[in-house]
Amino acid sequence: MSASLQLNIEHVREAARFLDGQVVRTPTLRSAALDRIIGAEVWLKAECMQHIGAFKARGALHTVGRLSDAERARGIVTYSSGNHAQAVAWAARQHGIAAAVAMPTDAPSVKVESVQALGARVTFAGTTSSERKVAALAIAAETGAVVIPPFDHPHIVAGQGTATLELFEDVMTATGGETLDALVVPVGGGGVIAGACLVAATHRTQVYSAEPYGCDAMGASLEAGERVAVEPGPTLADGLKPVRVGELNFAIAQAAGVKPLRVNDEEIGRALITVLAHARVLVEPSGAAGVAAAIRGLAGGPRRVGIMLTGGNVGMDTVSELLSRYSLHPVRW
Question: How far apart are CA 213 and CA 202, in angstroms?
Fold first, then answer.
């Protein structure tokens, strides 16, 4: 672990060079309406426009791309509720590698169908991250496949950090060298927030985690001063339901002084519709959690806030339901 904790901004920059031309440099969006709603200058990093519709493509392609020829010949396996599953399946197809994925029995059909369409073999295993991890390890033991973890790995963290690197570059270019006062990041296993912390540390930007109530493994761990497990409850944000955040990811977040924020499903649903209405971009509930947390309020009233829109893989039935429920009053809090 001590070697892993030596991860820093240079590892993220190296990952950015490795991924150059392989991933989308997603846009950084502005919305005057969201500025007024949140009470700050808001910069949205639209990773919902990334390959497979989520930031996960960065870490997966970076990790799979670093495998040796001998490792690739063995095939790969992962475990995920959806977006990492799609990212690994996509990365495997890019490299001509066989892939297997353990997914939860309650994974959204839009994500399952995408994984299968990308050519990966899907095995369903329980409803928690620990159950699908056990299933993936069993597949690896049987087939010899290389396990590509969803979040707790240096290559994953560095790859995910490239999204935040781009966000800060865009902000500094647009403002003539100024930076963000705060950055809000939705958290599942913690890979994207760990990468974000490596970048934000060079700017002295306060990082906030955004999690659903009852699925707050990062917040609970930060408050306890050590990693703790939670029993994830039901939530719209299917991508933010870990039993426990990654060991490496927690260590980085704790060292960076991340402040935890929690939101409920109504806030997440309203945030999704608010982003759709005012930023003209569709995010999934997990990807809207950061906006929900920023609308609820950030300590100290930061002037310039970055928010990661981490994914956009959402079924149209969910969007239709949320539109009917919140579209008339998307920003009433």
Answer: 30
Strands 28-29 and 41-46: antiparallel
What CATH number does residue 243 fall under? 3.40.50.1100
Does residue 333 sit within a domain? no
Task: Give the pLDDT band of residue 331 (cuts 50, 70, 90).
Answer: low
- Tokens of residue 218, six digits: 């990062």
Span between the terminal Cα atoms of the chain, in Å: 42
Burial class (CB in 10 A: 0-12, 13-18, 19+), 290: buried
Say yes or no: 90 and 186 in one domain: no
Share of the chain above pLDDT 70, in %: 97
Determine the Cα–Cα distance for residues 317 and 307; give it in Å rounded to an integer.
26
Scan for tokens 């790859």, then name that residue: 159
Say which amino acid occupies 273. Answer: I
Residue ending a domain, choose from 78, 112, 147: 147
Contact 248, 195 (CB under 8 A): no
